[in-house]
Amino acid sequence: MDLTRELPLDQIMRGDSIELMRMLPPASVHCVFADPPYNLQLRGELRRPDDSLVDAVDEDWDRFADFAAYDEFTRAWLTECRRVLRKDGTLWVIGAYHNIFRIGAILQDLGFWILNDVIWRKSNPMPNFRGRRFTNAHETLIWAARGRDSRYKFNYQAMKALNDDLQMRSDWLLPLCTGAERIRNAHGLKLHPTQKPEALLHRVLLASTAPDDIVLDPFAGTGTTAAVARRLSRRYIAIERHPAYVEAALGRVRRVRPAPLDGASNTPTRREAARIPFGNLVEQGIVPPGTTVTDRQRRVAATVAADGTLVCGPLRGSIHKLGSEVQNAPSCNGWTFWHVERDGALVSLDTLRASMRTASD
Amino acid sequence: MDLTRELPLDQIMRGDSIELMRMLPPASVHCVFADPPYNLQLRGELRRPDDSLVDAVDEDWDRFADFAAYDEFTRAWLTECRRVLRKDGTLWVIGAYHNIFRIGAILQDLGFWILNDVIWRKSNPMPNFRGRRFTNAHETLIWAARGRDSRYKFNYQAMKALNDDLQMRSDWLLPLCTGAERIRNAHGLKLHPTQKPEALLHRVLLASTAPDDIVLDPFAGTGTTAAVARRLSRRYIAIERHPAYVEAALGRVRRVRPAPLDGASNTPTRREAARIPFGNLVEQGIVPPGTTVTDRQRRVAATVAADGTLVCGPLRGSIHKLGSEVQNAPSCNGWTFWHVERDGALVSLDTLRASMRTASD
DNA sequence: CCAAAACATGAATCGCAGG
DNA sequence: TCCTGCGATTCATGTTTTG
Questions:
Q1: Pick from A128, A253, A249, A109: which is nearest to A191 by CA?
Q2: What's the rounded mean pLDDT across residues A215-219?
Q3: Quick one: pLDDT at residue B361?
Q4: A159 contacts in B (CB within 8 Å)?
Q5: Mutate to test the interface with B, among A40, A60, A114, A117 (most CBs of B within 10 A)
Q6: How far is it, in rounded angstroms, from Cα B361 to Cα B356?
Q7: B11-254: what CATH class?
Q8: pLDDT one-digit tens code per residue, B279-305
Q9: CB contact under 8 A, A134 and B116
Q10: What residues form DSSP beta bridges with A340?
Q11: What angle do CA B85, B86, B88 make, to 5 degrees?
């Protein structure tokens, strides 16, 4: 397959992440989710990002060299991600205190624009056995747009719905990946040391992508991103170097059935709903010309003209313009500001529009 | 006073942080708490949905030319902190996604050894008014030892006691500094835009210092660190450049009486009610997207969408809203109304939620 | 005087489509 | 690419005003 001409959609490619990304065309994916290696100083031994062992020289220059090597690796894969990302695309990276600060600084240097840092609070973290620190009970995700001016996608209403109709916060409480979801080898041992829970990817993809969007995971591991993307009817491009992980991921993805269309959908943002000019309500007699509209407190009143403008003394304009003028406010959503009387009660224009929308479905 | 020979204990010094720290002798303080400028990079004004203006941080001290200038500043003050810190001392820095990644990377480069990153979860954050991002509901603290081999202080038992005899986690839920604690000027306006709550410093100092230890705050503001240090019978060295802040801090510290050292002054932790949105059951695969839910008599059916809403023909909404709509009832408890099939029998969502609760206990 | 409602505010990197 | 105009958007908490 010629990757420079055809995207390897819904595939899990085995190989080096940076090399393979270099073969992809620029501005081709909507979203990147990356869970990069961070095996810097976790064990007694030091490992480089490519998993090779560092001679145990415990001197200052060695520590510096080690950070420098990690930074170089980070800069390389983030550069490729940015090249491959569409102008309005976003990138997610997950990490912990060993590596996330370096990643965050480098992605800022590369021109990414951070939108949020998100805290995955683990409901069941591993305790700190030696009692020398706080229980390390979270990991950090960075969500960033390709650039400061990106018109990135954020499914605000879907996130709000997911959280009982309150704005979704930057701290997410989710359990670790355990039980049946955890992929194990023939001996019953976990195959991957840091397999991420599918619930985490569910929220990530639902927040920042639409169905059929293309999601790239350069460090795919056992294929959590690919599996969730498939279930939510997103396309994926997954890269993983370790053959055993690739094999597990292939089997895993094959077992996933995409949710039916309704299931993969989410609440559309208001802006995505069909636009209905106020004039339509006038034309269709829902708010006939000559109707009096007022604010909620009935402090100001205006008359509906046949062309859908409002008239109030010498003032005339759209529902928004007149709303802002009578309030002396810089702007106004006329749909929610103005009301008409129905059965003795005041009903907002927005309510009338909503009933018109469901009637036309 | 000759700072090179005598420590300015329990004083709030007015002046440039880096210059004054340079005059202090090396290895002289036990702990540093630093709340540096965040380099917020705001542009334009922001209005709430009610058109009121958000009072944003626009002080001179938070403006930097670019990332390079901010990094240089950061490297300079962190270098002095490290020089002044005792071998076994620790440093705390607080920041947000605008600056914390740069700070974390630089302090690693300087040889600090990160012990934890700690998340201050705000119980009452400002919402995201435009609905373009997740509510930015937390700030990040980095806790680091002077070096990898530091035998740093951690009051494990005190932290455990503060947390109902469970290990203290790396995520702390605390309210913002408001009400009587917030220092105001003669006009009743907040004096400092970013005054930190005393409860935060209480936990920081109780975790990582002993009575009579010396705590340095290079960006003291209105003296929160100094006030809490005094109440907990720690010594402090505070540096602040702005005369009005220094004046406020001096008066504030004077009013503090050291508490008896019996530990009775522990601030209690906030216990959270276990709120489980229906969306959690969807994310975690307990009720996967696409599942069909029905009422007990199977008279109406709906499909579960990925964001936790239910879809039924043209209707879409939360489990409660859709439940009331299909019944034509004013309200409905969706948890008990809707059921899914499990082993051929109908089980209410409420039952599934209950099993989820016990699993997480 | 009390209860209820209205108001105020917090480290904020806070539009978008169409012409 | 710039310009214009539509019209989307808030939670927890403390304080003040109103009935």
A1: A249
A2: 98
A3: 46
A4: 134, 307
A5: A117
A6: 9
A7: alpha beta
A8: 999 999 999 999 999 999 999 999 999
A9: yes
A10: A347
A11: 115
Q: Would you call A328 an interface residue with chain B, using a CB distance cutoff of 8 Å?
A: no
For residue A224, give the nearest of A257, A189, A181, A266 by alpha carbon: A181
> How would DSSP label each residue in B110-175?
TT-EEEEEEEEEESSPPP-TTSSS-B--EEEEEEEESSTT------HHHHHHHTTTS--BSEEEE-
Distance from CA of A23 to the nearest CA of B (A): 30
Average pLDDT score, chain B: 94
Q: Is B8 on the interface with A (CB under 8 A)?
A: no
Sequence letter at residue B357? R
Neighbours of A87 (CB within 10 A): 12
The ranges assigned to domains in chain A are 11-270, 274-360
Computed on alpha carbons and rounded to an integer, the radius of gyration of chain A in Å comes to 26
Among candidates B45, B39, B88, B75, which has minimal Cα distance to B60?
Answer: B39
Q: Helices A60-84 and B100-109: crossing angle, nearest 10°?
A: 150
CA of B218 to C1' of D3 (A): 48
Question: For position B4, what pLDDT does the model report?
Answer: 72
User: What are the residues whose beta carbons fall under 8 Å from the beta carbon of B141, sequence distance 6 or more?
Assistant: B92, B93, B94, B95, B117, B118, B119, B120, B204
pLDDT tens profile B174-229? 999 999 999 999 999 999 999 999 999 999 999 999 999 999 999 999 999 999 99
Å separating the CA of residue A338 from the C1' of nucleotide D19: 27
Query: Mind giving me the DSSP string for A83-140?
Result: HHEEEEEEEEEEE-TTTHHHHHHHHHHTT-EEEEEEEEEESSPPP-TTSSS-B--EEE
The architecture that CATH gives domain A11-270 is 3-Layer(aba) Sandwich (3.40)
Question: Measured at the alpha carbon of residue A25, what is the angle toward residues A28 and A253, in degrees to the nearest 5?
Answer: 60
Tokens of B69: 């200038």
Question: Which pair of tokens denotes residue A241?
Answer: 């170097």
Query: What is the torsion angle, in degrees rounded to the nearest 10, for the CA atoms of residue A67, residue A70, residue A72 and residue A78?
Result: -130
Residue A360's contacts (CB-CB under 8 Å, 6 or more residues apart) are: none
Which structure tokens are listed for A107?
A: 């992605």
